[in-house]
């Protein structure tokens, strides 16, 4: 077992801390634009042979077909902007169009920005937006040589420490990276990503007393990042959100700040030890503030509750004070807030009628109306409205007529009967004469209306004759009754 004296132990400890500190500066490019990735298609299924492929009009990025040697499609709808990247000696064939061909639609649209924090991995979610994209002390890792890369470089010139491919261990030399701007794989324009003039190890050893992500703290690079991030801010789910340097949205979390003279590595080591038991619930990020101080940002993984943040901030504050580090400020974003935007929107719509009803009720009571009168009036109003609705529903009706065998229907003209002749007996029976004959109303049926057994009076008749015949019928009915 090897032992070191006190000075050597300090050197070994410094080297370990520097290596740990330097490893956190590696930023990986995340977007996957490969044809063979199922998540890149709307239905989650890679296009089959002889299928039809549709790209959105606003694709604006490159799509790699690196693993498909012989791709055959029945049709392809190309976007207004974008690229299809074929492998070396690869072929894309189009067969005869088929009506039953399966359709696959590309799911991604728009450009993929270098200045978008969502496109980079390698930093804590507690880090501000400006420090989640590559800074001048960061090592950038791009996809491997067999993957498609499509990046819209930032408008202003930015610096990084080094750039390498994920399948390579050594980064590009500065001269090699500069040569990329003249290669045909890159679009013509400003090549705004440069190598920094300072060495990363030198920055780590001097602990970067005023270390900005780029040349200065407040610049147009931050505005370019915030132009992408601000539309994603959404609802602020904490009561008192923090204002964090380099962050575009209100910050719901905690913060512990120390004095300017303290070492960044020492604060980071103390924070890792104090928050070790919270790794599943929170994330933290140690940074050098723009005024030269050191602060630790803490954020919950998932929805904000505030309770875990309060405990973590208190534990970190006690740990730093125990190790002799002066804490100048310890704060949290307060209690959790629920998203009440829907209630705020619907409140006036639903609350205004209720307020009007209450005011009307008070007015009626003021003018001497009792609750019974008001209630009866309301019931009458509701009944009248309901009757009106029913009347509207029953306003239009219809009569149903059937062509049944026993019905008296004549298609041709009856001898001696014209369509314009209508007698009183027909009206009583429910028979309507129309042009071409008579039509019996099947809704009016009665045995009394049968023509059999009924005596037809000959016209014309005198009043005395009609009266005598009526008297005879009455006498016959009385005799039948007596029997």
What does this structure look like?
Strands 8-1-9-11 form a four-stranded mixed beta sheet, with no helix packed on it. Strands 6-4-2-7 form a four-stranded parallel beta sheet, with no helix packed on it. The protein has a four-stranded antiparallel beta sheet with strand order 14-15-13-16, with helices on one face. It has helices at residues 6-23, 129-132, 174-179, 200-205, 220-229, 264-274, 307-322, 341-366, 371-393, 424-429, 463-482; strands spanning 26-29, 51-54, 62-64, 70-77, 83-85, 91-94, 103-105, 120-121, 139-142, 158-160, 162-165, 193-195, 254-258, 282-288, 294-300, 327-332, 431-434, 437-440. It is 30% helix and 16% strand. The protein folds into four domains: 22-29 and 113-230, no CATH class; 38-105, no CATH class; 235-332, Alpha-Beta Plaits, CATH 3.30.70.1710; 341-393. The chain has 483 residues and is of the alpha/beta class.
Gyration radius, rounded: 45 Å
Q: Share of helix among residues? A: 25-40%
| Helix and strand run | HEEEEEEEEHEEEHEHHEHEEHEHHHEEH
Largest sheet: 4 strands, mixed
Uncertain runs:
1-24, 410-414, 427-432
Structural class based on helices, strands and sheet pairing: alpha/beta
Q: How many discrete domains?
A: 4
The largest beta-sheet arranges its strands as 8-1-9-11
- The rounded distance between the terminal residues' Cα atoms is 142 Å
Strand content: 15-25%
What's the rounded overall pLDDT mean? Answer: 78
The general outline is: flat
Number of strands: 18
Tally the helices: what do you get?
A: 11
């Amino acid at each position: 077992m090897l032992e070191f004296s006190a000075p050597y132990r300090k050197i070994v400890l410094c080297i370990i801390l520097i290596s740990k500190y330097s490893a956190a500066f590696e930023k990986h490019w995340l977007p996957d634009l490969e044809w063979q990735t199922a998540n890149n298609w709307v239905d989650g299924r890679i296009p089959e042979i002889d299928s039809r492929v549709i790209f959105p009009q606003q694709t604006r990025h490159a799509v790699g077909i690196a693993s498909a040697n012989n791709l055959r499609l029945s049709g392809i709808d190309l976007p207004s902007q974008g690229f299809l990247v074929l492998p070396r000696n690869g072929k894309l064939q189009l067969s005869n169009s088929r009506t039953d061909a399966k359709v696959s639609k590309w799911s991604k649209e728009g450009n993929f920005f270098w200045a978008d924090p969502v496109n980079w991995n390698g930093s804590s979610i507690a880090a501000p937006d400006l420090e989640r994209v590559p800074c001048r002390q960061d090592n950038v890792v791009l996809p491997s040589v067999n993957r498609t890369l499509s990046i819209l470089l930032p408008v202003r010139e930015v610096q990084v420490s080094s750039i390498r491919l994920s399948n390579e261990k050594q980064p590009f030399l500065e001269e090699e990276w500069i040569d990329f701007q003249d290669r045909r794989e890159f679009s013509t324009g400003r090549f705004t990503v440069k190598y920094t003039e300072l060495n990363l190890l030198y920055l780590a050893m001097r602990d970067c007393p005023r270390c900005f992500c780029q040349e200065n703290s407040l610049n147009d690079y931050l505005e370019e990042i915030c132009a992408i991030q601000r539309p994603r801010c959404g609802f602020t789910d904490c009561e008192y959100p923090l204002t964090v340097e380099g962050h575009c949205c209100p910050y719901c979390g905690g913060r512990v700040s120390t004095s300017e003279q303290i070492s960044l590595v020492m604060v980071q080591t103390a924070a890792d030890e104090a928050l070790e038991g919270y790794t599943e619930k929170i994330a933290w990020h140690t940074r050098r503030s723009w005024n030269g101080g050191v602060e630790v940002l803490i954020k919950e993984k998932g929805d904000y509750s505030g309770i875990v943040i309060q405990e973590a901030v208190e534990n970190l504050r006690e740990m730093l004070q125990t190790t002799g580090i002066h804490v100048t400020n310890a704060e949290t974003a307060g209690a959790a807030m629920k998203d009440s935007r829907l209630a705020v929107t619907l409140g006036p719509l639903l609350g205004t009628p209720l307020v009007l009803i209450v005011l009307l009720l008070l007015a009626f009571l003021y003018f001497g109306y009792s609750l019974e009168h008001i209630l009866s009036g309301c019931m009458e109003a509701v009944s009248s409205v309901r009757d009106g609705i029913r009347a509207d529903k029953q306003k239009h009706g219809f009569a149903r007529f059937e062509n049944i065998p026993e019905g008296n229907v004549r298609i041709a003209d009856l001898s001696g009967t014209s369509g314009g002749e209508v007698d009183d007996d027909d009206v009583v029976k429910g028979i309507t004469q129309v042009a071409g004959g008579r039509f019996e109303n099947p809704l009016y049926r009665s045995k009394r209306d049968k023509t059999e057994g009924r005596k037809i009076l000959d016209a014309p008749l005198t009043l005395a004759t009609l009266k005598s015949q009526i008297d005879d019928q009455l006498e016959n009915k009385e005799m039948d009754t007596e029997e």
